[in-house]
Amino acid sequence: MDVLVLVGRILFAPLFLASGLGHLARTSMMAGYTASRGVPKAIAPALVLGSGLLIIAGSLMVLFGVWGDLGAVFLTAFLVPTALIMHGPWGVADAQARMMEQTQLLKDLALAGASLMILALFAFAGSDLGLTLTGPLFDLG
User: Which of 30, 51, 77, 87 has the lowest CB atom count within 10 Å?
Assistant: First the structure.
């Protein structure tokens, strides 16, 4: 099971690493989009930078098994608000754009669900999970 969970972590993390690096590399562009979705323009750049750092940290924690449960919490804390604020299809007039936002909303919610399962896996299996650098931060067992 150790190797299977490790392979799953390796496959899961790159999406968030790439996205987080994109947040850092294209902050002003992403802040403009963030503001267009109703987030105050004055705080949009800080939110883009902060969320980029949050998902980079979370994905690395899950990938390397350094308090992977906390890393999964970080990812969930990014995904749920992002799904609801940035990708809500409600109020989108164009049918094609609405369908794309609905797909992004559902993708983010599905990834949040997967992150919660990773939280449970780390927290319940504890040090028995294997192939991690630390044990979990939380004990849900």
Answer: 77
Domain that holds residue 107: 2-127
Q: What is the pTM of this model?
A: 0.95
Residue 96 forms part of a structural domain: yes
Length of the chain: 141
pLDDT tens for residues 25-81? 999 999 999 999 999 999 999 999 999 999 999 999 999 999 999 999 999 999 999
Contact 74/56 with Cβ under 8 angstroms?
A: no
Task: Give the C-alpha separation, 109 to 7, whole Å.
Answer: 22
CA distance 136 to 129: 10
- Alpha-carbon dihedral angle through residues 111, 134, 61, 128, given to the nearest 10 degrees: -20
User: 132 lies in a domain?
Assistant: no
- Give the number of domains in the chain: 1
